[in-house]
Amino acid sequence: MKHIFWIVPLALLGVAGGWLIRERNAPPEVRFTVAALASIVDTLATNGKVEPAEYASLRAVRAGTLTRLTAFNGKTVAAGQVVAELDNTAIYRSREAAEARVAQLEAELRAVSGGGRASERADIDGQLRRLDVEHQQAQSELERVTRLIEKHAATRAEAQTLRDRVHQLDSQRTALQQRRSVLFTSADRAVIEARLAETRAAAKATMDEQDRGTLRAPISGTVYQLDLKPGAFLNPGDFVANIGDVSKLVVKVFVDEPELSRVAPGMPVTITWDGRPGREWKGEVRRMPVQILPLQSRQVGEVVVRIENEDGSLPAGANVNAAIRSREAANAVVVPKECLRRDEKGQGVFVAEGATLHWRSVQLGVTNVTHAQITSGVKAGDRVLLATETLLRDKQAVRPAPGQ
Predict the structure, then answer these.
(1) Are 249 and 53 spatial neighbours (Cβ–Cβ below 8 Å)?
(2) Domain locations in the chain?
(3) What are the pLDDT digits (tens) for 69-80?
């Protein structure tokens, strides 16, 4: 009876051991898929940035503090319309001083053109008239005294005194006439004219400098990327805003350098924006990049895509998603990319014939993120091995996983 109790456990162990041996020697369990006929599209997904097809940047021409903004993002402006103004206080004062100096020099030039200042001329003319009266009186007195000398009623000394007085008056008159003639010379006029021209130029320069503080729209369009606030200090060349036609946009799509071979002009592109979920904008590749640029840790080419934006729902400057339809194949033999393997002979797949695997070298056509077109080596309906961690070989026996 005791022997029976030992026999049962030993039998169970034998059965379990046999099962383990059979499982260890059994073909590996694997999963398959069926190569199917389907359309496959090679879509290159990346990102990009939106810009108007036609735009111009507004920049500061001179240094100054921003005192006023007359536009804002999204506002439509006409060419020449004021967008912003810089502080002109110091320039305005300089302009007033220059204009006052111009007026002063113009008055001096008018005085020169008239022979001198009116007050000086009037004073000299008055002295000349007085001298003329005194000269006439002295000359008449000399003539009277001369007649009296002939009658021995006056002395020759009296006559000589009068002659000296007439001579003195003649000398004074001549000196005043000379002074009047040289109030301003031609050289003085030339000097004033030169100073006036210089001052006028300085006044115009301050006017131009004042005008440069008024920042005007270079073209008609919609204002965007205007991020400044009043009080900001600008240096010459500092960016103020962009202005452009936002109804027609271009997207600079950033394609990684190794992927550029998958892109060509005319390929359709779908643009999406996280700010408008569910909305799509259609376009096509218009221009390939002319240089490779660094973008953070990437090396990219800027592929230009043109899209329509008549309702203005996609704002300029937006960071968008781009899907470029690189290639497309209809009625193609398609398998998941996880089926693909590579050995020393090249790329291929395992195809099941009954319970045995057979290695097939394959040629690929269009591929995307999940699937690949097989142009040779596999036909529609073939059972193709999916990915597995088990090391497999050609002509190896396998068994399908449950449900396969």
Answers:
(1) yes
(2) 26-39+330-400, 44-54+245-329, 61-86+213-242, 93-208
(3) 999 998 999 999
Residue with tokens 């009623």: 153
Whether the CB-CB separation of 226 and 241 falls below 8 Å is answered with yes
Q: How far apart are CA 279 and CA 274, in angstroms?
A: 9
One-letter amino acid for residue 110 of the chain: R
Class of domain 26-39+330-400: mainly beta
DSSP state of 397: B
The CA distance from 336 to 378, in Å, is 13
Q: Which of 38, 33, 37 is CA-nearest to residue 380?
A: 37
**290 and 260 Cβ atoms separated by less than 8 Å:** no
Report the C-alpha gap between 35 and 365 in whole angstroms. Answer: 14
Task: Report if pTM > 0.85.
Answer: no
Query: Tokens 């990327």 correspond to what residue?
Result: 225
Place 20 in a pLDDT band, splitting at 50, 70 and 90: very low
Token output for 273? 């924006």
* CA atoms of 271 and 320, how far apart (whole Å): 7
How is domain 44-54+245-329 classified at the CATH fold level? Answer: Elongation Factor Tu (Ef-tu); domain 3 (2.40.30)
Q: What SS3 class is residue 173?
A: helix
How many other CB atoms are there within 10 angstroms of residue 153's CB atom?
Answer: 9
- Beta bridge partners, 254, equal 47, 302
pLDDT at position 135 over 50 = yes
The two tokens of residue 36 are 């199917």
Classified by CATH at the fold level, domain 61-86+213-242 comes out as OB fold (Dihydrolipoamide Acetyltransferase, E2P) (2.40.50)
Rounded Cα distance, 358 and 365, in Å: 22
Report yes or no: 82 and 58 within 8 Å, Cβ to Cβ: no
Rg from Cα positions in the chain: 52
